[in-house]
Amino acid sequence: MTIERDTLKEFYQSSGAALTAAPDIDLVFNRALLDQIHRVSAEPKNVTYEEVDAGGRPGIWCIPAGADQRHVILYFHGGGFVVQSVNSHRKLAGHLAAAAGCRVLLLDYRQAPEHQYPSQIDDVEGAYGWLRSQGVDPDGIAFAGDSAGVCLAVSSVVRLRDKGLPLPAAIIGFSPWFDLECNGKSLETNAAKDVLVRGPLVQQMVMAYLSADTSRTDPLVNPLHADLAGFPPVFLTASLDEALLDNAERFAYRAREAGVEVELHTVPGQQHVFQFMAGRSSAADLSIAEAGSWVAERLGLMAAVGG
Question: Do β-strands 57-64 and 47-54 pair in parallel, antiparallel, or remain unpaired?
Fold first, then answer.
């Protein structure tokens, strides 16, 4: 039996050690270091990329061969609203595009602390409106993201719904981070297993994202306090070993209570956003294949084979 190498865990450990050794490192260098996470991903097959202006913000089209042009997954990268980028997530988004058989638009939204809430949600709304102006029907659009990107996806849907605007057809979330109060039990119970996420780390990111007068329980900030009535179907995946596990569990419970269709997949022994290892990990490949098949069904597509 071949034991797969956990390159993601190794990356988190090495980058964490580097940042600990240089606690005063400039944010620019911090971002550059963490962008290197793309190296744990294999290049997706038969996917091309194209830069685009998406409603005033840069983006990258991830286009699988034979992609259906009428459907789009609008993807928001993680990184606590502070780090990572379209560069760190290009391969991951490309694998999802191949699995779903449609284009993925990876959005380069503004980041904190230079741009605090609600700049990020403004950028999502702008990109969503731009897609619609390009003739893509809301029923042909899904939102997707990982970690803080899932929070951004869900918060944006709350705003769109409250404005009475048409909603996307579905939401995909890998290792979601919703709890901006940072009081989830799994932050403690999984602390020995998760090599990346710690209480002080998420606290720092919240303080960068939110101004001092923004409540951490504002429904547009923290989806665990939002009214989820009328939401589109939601697909979530989280590892049983990650510190943010209960974020996915609590959101799924609340969404179901609101009558939302929710599918929650939990897997053992993986690190935060283990989908980064796409093409080099059977767990990552299976998770992306499941998400691709699920969203293809919600968008009325036939899921592509492979990735």
Answer: antiparallel
pLDDT tens, position by position, 226-242: 999 999 999 999 999 99
In angstroms, the CA 131 to CA 236 distance is 24
Q: How far apart are CA 184 and CA 286, in angstroms?
A: 27
- Write b or e for each residue in 106-130: b if 16 or more Cβ atoms lie within 10 A of its Cβ, otherwise e: bbbbebbeeebbbebbbbbbbbbeb
Q: At which residue do the structure tokens 């403690």 appear?
A: 188
Q: According to the model, what pLDDT value does residue 2 have?
A: 53
Which tens digits make up the pLDDT trace of 71-119? 999 999 999 999 999 999 999 999 999 999 999 999 999 999 999 999 9
DSSP assignment of 47-104 equals EEEEEEEETTEEEEEEEETT-EEEEEEEEE--STTTS--HHHHHHHHHHHHHHHTEEE
Distance CA 303, CA 289 (A): 9
pTM to 2 decimal places: 0.96
Tens of pLDDT, residue by residue over 113-164, are 999 999 999 999 999 999 999 999 999 999 999 999 999 999 999 999 999 9
Position 17 scores a pLDDT of: 82
Please list the residues that pair with 264 across neighbouring strands: 236
Question: What DSSP state is assigned to residue 136?
Answer: -
Contact call for residues 86 and 108 (beta carbons, < 8 A): yes
* Residue numbers annotated as active site: 147, 242, 272
